[in-house]
Amino acid sequence: MAAPVERVPPEAGARAWKVARGLAKGFGTTLRILWQRKHTIQYPDRRRERSARFRGRHELRRYANGQEMCVGCELCQVACPANAITVYAAENDPRHPHSPGERYAFAYEIDMLRCIYCGLCEEACPTGALHLTQEYEMAAFSRDALVYGRRILVDREATEFTVPEVVYPPFEGRRPPEAPEAGRERAGVTAPAGEQEAQRALSRRQDAGSCVPEERRAVAS
Amino acid sequence: MAAKSLILVLLLLGTFAYLMLFERKILGFFQFRLGPNRTGPWGLLQPVADGVKALIKEDVIPAEADRLIYLLAPGISLFMALAAYAVIPVGPPVHIGRYTVPLSIADPGAGILVLLAFTSLGIYGVALGGWASQSKYALLGGLRASAQLISYEIAMAMNLLAVLVMAGSLRLSDIVAAQSPYPYALVQPLGFVIYLITASAEVARAPFDLPEAETELVAGYHTEYSGLRMAMFVMAEYVNLITQASLVTLLYLGGWAGPSWLPGVVWFLLKLGAVLFFFIWVRATVPRLRYDQLMALGWKVLLPLSVANLLAYAGWAALAG
Ligand code: SF4
Ligand code: SF4
């Protein structure tokens, strides 16, 4: 049987010397730092430049003529992994269209408490309407206040972005079913007016187990 | 006497408040930060804001707590901490006309003993606070805090004895007088170092801040305390720190002795400030010990060393005279 390896602890004097040297080195390090430049950023007065790819609060942009870019396609809602977005689309009034498309976001909500700022909604948006801005100061006193609706997302602009011209042909009312254009014979075209559409979207969301509370669903319908 | 006591208490509380700000600032500097600077110029109003916050914070008393003792404990801690300072002279007596005013509430012949008595009584606040909360965390925290404080008090007392043997008096002003021309830090370097270590353990400061072991015990003996009562515990801790730093100044750094182009009080305060800075520096540098390391260091290293120190100086004193 091999003799057990005996671990000889270092001599007390050598250990004390090691400890003392280590302490001296540490004290020197802290003392050096004491005189060095401080890295504190005086936050509300001075802000750090954020990277161009920073993703903050959402914004639904408008065209230069004031029309909303969002056409209420709900692709962002589908793309959102956190289930934070709820879009209720409605048909545009041909005389006062909100957007150049057939539909616009009649109600648009993002639950900022669920959002993980992944930017997938931004990627999914076909019109480039949805944009994550550099704004990050979003503290609030209640959870409800953190569910952002149109008032914040559409009406409060966080960037000066404008698209110079409307990329979609202006919406001038639905073509009558007798003269359908090629490729427009989809079920969606014959959908009833905006309110009923929103109602249908709502029931779809309810089936999917949406987290939007009852009282806010009522708002949309 | 009463007026002097009042002045002392107010001075101590003011010093406590600004010591805390000073510590936060210095700790910040040690960590590449600026420290508190939003309240008032250079953050000078921060203690006021902290005080107001402590006052208006919700004060919770656990339903099962032993109310009387629970309410008394922070008071005991703070009272003992403040009372201990009564025997510490902060300078040579000043002469105002015919009167000679000593710069301490009292300078009793057994000054050191009075001080030791008060500092060890302060442990009651800690132990009772932990016990009366009726929380197991607080109880364990109180027990280990008192175990720590008592363990280190022994090594500390051995060091004090060595100083007393050299000075031949228990009176603090005599000890200061005995330190000319050489302060005891030079005469007893080992005792000085050990005293610094035991003092920081005695006032539960880093690296010996185990009574507030957030990692294991939530917060230690004051887990169940909040608001002003919690602030009183903290206050007691900081007043104890000031006391210990003053004691280091008096026992090892020659107290108010210094070239006469500055008054004695100023020398005392300068030295006190240096010692306090040193304690903060230690806090910024040395990582916290484990509890068994703490006990091993206290009983196996510091106590034998301080006894050896005492024996050496006692033997020397016996041979010399
Ligand atoms: S950033 Fe991501 S999580 Fe947030 S709303 Fe868009 S898709 Fe959803
Ligand atoms: S924001 Fe974009 S993706 Fe979302 S509904 Fe509007 S157009 Fe569609």
TrEMBL record, chain A:
Biased composition range(s): Basic and acidic residues: 172-187
Record-linked InterPro entries: 4Fe4S_Fe-S-bd (IPR017896), 4Fe4S_Fe_S_CS (IPR017900), NADH_quinone_OxRdtase_chainI (IPR010226)
Reactions catalysed: a quinone + NADH + 5 H(+)(in) = a quinol + NAD(+) + 4 H(+)(out)
Record-annotated 4Fe-4S ferredoxin-type domain positions: 60-90, 106-135
Domain of life: Bacteria
Protein residues bound to [4Fe-4S] cluster 2: C80, C115, C118, C121
Topology of this chain in the membrane: Peripheral membrane protein
Localisation per UniProt entry: Cell membrane
Obligatory cofactor(s): [4Fe-4S] cluster
Molecular function terms from GO: NADH dehydrogenase (quinone) (non-electrogenic) activity
Region Disordered: start-end pairs: 170-221
Keywords associated with the record: 4Fe-4S, Cell membrane, Iron, Iron-sulfur, Membrane, Metal-binding, NAD, Oxidoreductase, Quinone, Translocase, Ubiquinone
Enzyme Commission no: 7.1.1.-
Main location: membrane
Cofactor: how bound: Binds 2 [4Fe-4S] clusters per subunit.
Pfam families according to UniProt: Fer4_7
Binding site for [4Fe-4S] cluster 1: C70, C73, C76, C125
Subunit structure: NDH-1 is composed of 14 different subunits. Subunits NuoA, H, J, K, L, M, N constitute the membrane sector of the complex.
Purpose of the protein: NDH-1 shuttles electrons from NADH, via FMN and iron-sulfur (Fe-S) centers, to quinones in the respiratory chain. The immediate electron acceptor for the enzyme in this species is believed to be ubiquinone. Couples the redox reaction to proton translocation (for every two electrons transferred, four hydrogen ions are translocated across the cytoplasmic membrane), and thus conserves the redox energy in a proton gradient.
Family listed: Belongs to the complex I 23 kDa subunit family.
Protein name per its UniProtKB record: NADH-quinone oxidoreductase subunit I
Organism whose genome encodes this protein: Carboxydichorda subterranea
Gene behind the chain: nuoI
TrEMBL record, chain B:
Keywords: Cell membrane, Membrane, NAD, Oxidoreductase, Quinone, Translocase, Transmembrane, Transmembrane helix, Ubiquinone
EC number: 7.1.1.-
Reactions that this protein is recorded to catalyse: a quinone + NADH + 5 H(+)(in) = a quinol + NAD(+) + 4 H(+)(out)
Pfam families: NADHdh
Membrane-traversing stretches: 6-22, 68-88, 108-128, 149-170, 182-201, 238-258, 264-282, 294-319
Sequence similarity: Belongs to the complex I subunit 1 family.
Record function comment: NDH-1 shuttles electrons from NADH, via FMN and iron-sulfur (Fe-S) centers, to quinones in the respiratory chain. The immediate electron acceptor for the enzyme in this species is believed to be ubiquinone. Couples the redox reaction to proton translocation (for every two electrons transferred, four hydrogen ions are translocated across the cytoplasmic membrane), and thus conserves the redox energy in a proton gradient. This subunit may bind ubiquinone.
Subunit structure: NDH-1 is composed of 14 different subunits. Subunits NuoA, H, J, K, L, M, N constitute the membrane sector of the complex.
Protein's UniProt name: NADH-quinone oxidoreductase subunit H
Lineage: Bacteria, Bacillati, Bacillota, Limnochordia, Limnochordales
